[in-house]
Amino acid sequence: MSTTTSVQPLFTAFTLGNLTLKNRTVMAPMTRNMSPNGVPGANVAAYYRRRAENNVGLIITEGTVIQHADSSNQKDVPHFYGEDALNGWANVVSEVHAAGGKIIPQIWHMGARGSVNDYSEAEIEQIVEAFAQAAADAKRLGFDGIELHGAHGYLIDQFFWERTNQRTDRYGGSLAARTRFAEEVIRASRQAVGPDFPIVLRISQWKGSDYAAKLANTPEELTQFLKPLVDAGVDIFHCSTRRFWQPEFEGSDLNLAGWVKQITGKPTITVGSIGLDSDVSSFFTEGKGANTTSVEGLVHKFEKDEFDLVAIGRALLVDPAWVAKIAEGRTNELIPFTPEALKTLY
């Protein structure tokens, strides 16, 4: 495949341990609610395969929930437990690999209870074990790694955030202490999959209930937050923002992924309205679509070594060939995002 000069840097290979990606593009995880009874069917497998066929470097699946009573409160979200659901995921992996792609599942607990304060330590232990079981199943099914969803106000993030975590035991208190639950999930997952299976952790400042929320107000606080997670075994940080081009802290142009990479030395994934002219909150709050836009600013930040991988969400949801079109300079063929796109697995 020929690649236009301006985007060439995004189409270089990336290697982390045993994982090699043909380019730096990532399909961001996006909930589709298309898996009746929690089982991803042939239509879901074909949806992911189409992205692999069109040169996406790494596919991160929609969030798929672990086995726990309040891991989900949404209809038709895929499960990552039970024979039928796991067989469905095995087929997804097979289809993506047959098309030459790489794929990891986003392992998810929604925290549907809404508060982490009344979980007993025994129940926390059960949840940690459920995450570890999901990690082991992902490896057994042939996935190329896992992503743990620690962002957007879901369970792991509910432990991170002081507004939702008022625990007075070892899982609450300082910012570093509030990472303890995530540390246990990461360590248990690592034990389940061994040293060479990539573990990605998705993090965010913003929450689904509060776009202005901050876990860390300064680089120093971000350092305190990240160190225990690195020590626990995270390989890659997926740094969720609504607008990838926005600086995270005053006095620097670095976005969140840029700061995390600088602090930890770990590879990072940036995300946030790549290829579109309005952010995801305009869709969630106003039901707005978004027009296509240049990736020139993205390439510029990538060339400054701010981040290693770039995750594309809505632009890739509506157009499975987005990556191929960008690579080949077919920008006149790009498709705008509309809310109606959510009704179809393109």
UniProtKB/TrEMBL annotation:
SUPFAM superfamilies: FMN-linked oxidoreductases (SSF51395). Residues 10-115, 120-332 form the NADH:flavin oxidoreductase/NADH oxidase N-terminal domain. Its cofactor is FMN. GO terms for molecular function: FMN binding; NADP binding; NADPH dehydrogenase activity. This is 2,4-dienoyl-CoA reductase-like NADH-dependent reductase (Old Yellow Enzyme family). PANTHER family: NADPH DEHYDROGENASE C23G7.10C-RELATED. The lineage of its organism: Bacteria, Bacillati, Bacillota, Bacilli, Bacillales. The keyword Oxidoreductase applies. It holds the Pfam family Oxidored_FMN. InterPro entries: Aldolase_TIM, OxRdtase_FMN_N, YqjM-like. Keywords: Flavoprotein, FMN, NADP, Oxidoreductase. It comes from Paenibacillus cellulosilyticus.
